[in-house]
Write a structure and sequence with these properties.
Number of strands: 4
Structural class: alpha+beta
Number of helices: 4
Radius of gyration: 20 Å
Strand order of the largest sheet: 1-2-3-4
Distance between the termini: 79 Å
Order of helices and strands: HHHHEEEE
Strand content: 25-35%
CATH topology: Nuclear Transport Factor 2, Chain: A
Helix content: 40-55%
Length: 138
């Protein structure tokens, strides 16, 4: 009876590893461009900056969280107002420090083509938004 129980638990443990491990690996195995596209989608749906905090690098997140809520809400409204749409990743460059810089293009709030540089950093096994800068030519 004891051997049978041990065999049953071993099989259950093995099945758990087989089915759970790939999901964990896939979450960690995203490329920087895939992560950035997820962030762009989350940003488009976000109602407050709190909705995108999980995507932010620790340093940026700490700065956002230290800002008083009323200021944070106004700041986020402005960021959303001047945000970009139709964003496409054009190029991916891996840095020596493990970060990735994405060259992107999109449409700004004035419906003009813009280009951007997005620095994606690894924190543990997760990608996070480091820096984001955009330029629109007149």
């Amino acid at each position: 009876m004891r051997v049978r129980q041990l065999a049953t638990w071993s099989i259950l443990a093995l099945l758990t590893i087989v089915f759970v491990a790939p999901a964990t690996t896939n979450a960690q195995g995203k490329t920087a461009p895939q992560f950035y596209q997820e962030y762009v989608a989350a940003f488009a749906k976000a109602k407050t900056i709190d909705d995108i905090l999980p995507f932010m690098a620790a340093e940026n997140r700490k700065q956002a969280e230290a800002t008083p809520k009323a200021e944070r809400d106004k700041m986020f409204e402005m960021i959303k107002m001047f945000g970009h749409t139709d964003i496409k990743v054009l190029k991916e460059e891996k840095g020596a420090d493990g970060s990735t810089v994405l060259s992107v293009e999109g449409i700004d709030s004035d419906k003009k083509k813009s280009t951007g540089q997005i620095t994606i950093v690894k924190e543990g096994a997760a990608w996070k938004i480091g820096q984001e800068s955009w330029t629109t030519k007149a």
